[in-house]
Amino acid sequence: MKRLTSVSALAFAAMTAPALADVTPQQVWDNFESYMANFGYQLEGTPSQSGDVLTVTGVAMSIEMPEEEGSVKIGMGDMILTDRGDGTVAWTYPDDAQFTLDMNIEGDQVNAVVDYDHDGLEMIVSGDPDNMRYDYSAAMLGLTLSKLVVEGEEITRDMARAKMTLKDVSGHYVSATVDGVQSMAQAMTAADLMVDAAFNDPESDDAGTFNVALTGMSYSGDALIPEGADFSDPAAIFGTGLSGGGKMTHTGAVIDFVVTERSGATAGKVTTESGRFDVAMSEDALTYDIGNTGMTVNLQGPEIPLPIDAKMAETGFKFVVPLKPNEGPQDAALGITLAGFEMNELLWNIFDPAAVLPRDPATIAMNLTAKVTPFVSLFDEKAMMDLESTGGMPGELNALTLTDLQVKAAGGEITGTGAFTFDNSDMESFDGFPRPEGKLDLQVSGANGLIDKIIAMGLMEESDAMGARMMLSMFTVPGTAPDTASSTIEVNGQGHVLANGQRLK
User: Fold this and answer.
1) Which residues of 342-374 are buried (b: 16+ CB within 10 A; e: fewer)?
2) DSSP code for 433
3) In which residue ranges of the chain is pLDDT below 50?
4) Most CB contacts within 10 A, which of 342, 414, 490, 496?
5) Residue 439: C-alpha distances to residues 93, 193, 402, 493, 501 (Å)
6) How far apart are CA 335 and CA 288, in angstroms?
């Protein structure tokens, strides 16, 4: 966990780095240098002034990884900072710019050269030292892997390639410093994002190609970064007030891939009509929310018995996790949406050739919100290791609420809501689990009809179905409409479990 969060923090710093600039070329460079130092980076570069132009040659930034796990150095070539005569500065790169990457991670050495291409790129910085705005636009931005060396052996282009292209890019970045805390806000749009990558291992039959295309992409984000933040220690840095988040959306995506192994080639294609990716992080909590609409999936290969052709109207996944110890309950959440699932007729006909079952789209969805009391920080590596060795718990569950439960497939449907509180002082009533108190309300429709269809398909005998119907009648009461039922499962303050008022425990 600590290694992952350290890398995430460094990546966060690298993404925000180009924002700093000022109203004169020298101030731009000075602020950029001090800004990167706040993130633990050592910045190299030789500035030389000629009239209104400041050229910084050999720009590179390097950083040591936490716990002596290695180092990373990024060479950024030359920067050209030009005073535009109106209080703003133009920041440009040469047309043939290259980035170099030198990594030593736990003894493994990787060196790479990346070509940086651009068309119509314009970057203008305005404002003052404590409040700067960075505007940029370009018809095209491109990164192409031109050289890769791993452990002294060059990986040639026919063995590996990678290219990323952005088209019709525009955006801005605003940075302000107040009382030693830097606030940042940014927004960016791009008409298209394209990624083309491939690998081919000459010593085996392994190979693959990957293509990704996104349209209508937009991104927005913000952050608060305290002065002197130590990104090598996530537990400490978030305790000093670091917070940030970002949201990316798109209006369509296509992912194509072919992976070849000794057994043959596996090909796949995934498309979506829209998508979102939303993440926020502070010392208090981590929030993660992703989703897509209009997804299609096509897969075929030697290890897949039949080609997969499926659709999903909506997918979503969300969670909220508290990160630091607290004496009182904190918010947590988990949400899952798999709505409108459809598969092709070929797959249906394998187990239902007579089309007995309704082939309506299927859905599984639910939202859980909770109150939990964390005992340790998830960033505290020592505390987490101690829990693992002692079998302790990182926190306790105090309350749980279920909403929007829906399970719908083959003509049957279950919906429900519920809410429970938990007594952590009573771990005996439910065999090591805190005693719950509350109730769960469920509604069922089409259950008997679904059982009848399964019998007609020969997948269940009438004698087996009788047991299922008896269980259904024990835990539910008939509804007002045909083939409907409801059930209320309750746990009271004495630890008794009741189904529709009938005590089960």
Assistant:
1) eeeeeeeeeebeeebbeeeebbebbbbbbbbbb
2) B
3) 1-21
4) 490
5) 64, 48, 10, 11, 11
6) 10
- DSSP calls for 61-79: EEEEPGGG-EEEEEEEEEE
Amino acid at 414: I
| Helices (H) then strands (E): counts for the chain | 7, 27
Rounded to 10 deg, the angle between the 462-475 and 447-456 helix axes is 170
pLDDT score, position 424:
92
DSSP states along 245-301 = EEEEEESEEEEEEEEEETTEEEEEEEEESEEEEEEEE-SSEEEEEEEEEEEEEEEE-
Q: Judge residue 481's burial from the number of C-beta atoms within 10 Å of its C-beta, 0-12 exposed, 13-18 middle, 19 or more buried.
A: exposed
Beta bridge partners of 182: 177, 225
Helix H or strand E segment including 409: strand 395-409
Q: Are 364 and 335 a contacting pair, CB within 8 Å?
A: no
Q: Which of 322, 246, 247 is nearest to 282 (CA)?
A: 322
The per-residue b/e assignment along 165-202, b for 16 or more CB within 10 angstroms, e otherwise, is: bbbebebebbbebeeeebebebebebebbbebbbebee
Reported pTM: 0.83
Neighbours of 47 (CB within 10 A): 16
Q: Residue 216: which H helix or E strand, with range?
A: strand 207-226
Which is nearest to 297 in space by CA: 289, 305, 307?
Answer: 307
Which residue's structure tokens are 């990986």? 155
Please report the pLDDT score of residue 253 as a whole number: 97
Please state the length of the chain.
505
Tokens of 102: 């030198």
CA 44 to chain CA centroid, Å, is 33
Q: How far apart are CA 160 and CA 198, in angstroms?
A: 6
The 8-class DSSP code of residue 423 comes to: E
pLDDT at 66: 66
Structure confidence at residue 437 (pLDDT): 95
**pLDDT tens digits for 231-255?**
666 666 666 777 889 999 999 999 9
Percent of the chain that is helix, strand, coil (3-state, to 5): 15, 60, 25
- Measured in degrees and rounded to the nearest 5, phi and psi for residue 457 equal -80, -10
pLDDT at 457: 85
Helix (H, G, I), strand (E, B) or coil at 121: coil
C-beta separation of 102 from 84 below 8 A: no
Q: What angle do CA 252, 255, 257 make, to 5 degrees?
A: 170
State both tokens at 111: 């060196």
Which residue type, as a one-letter code, is found at position 366? M
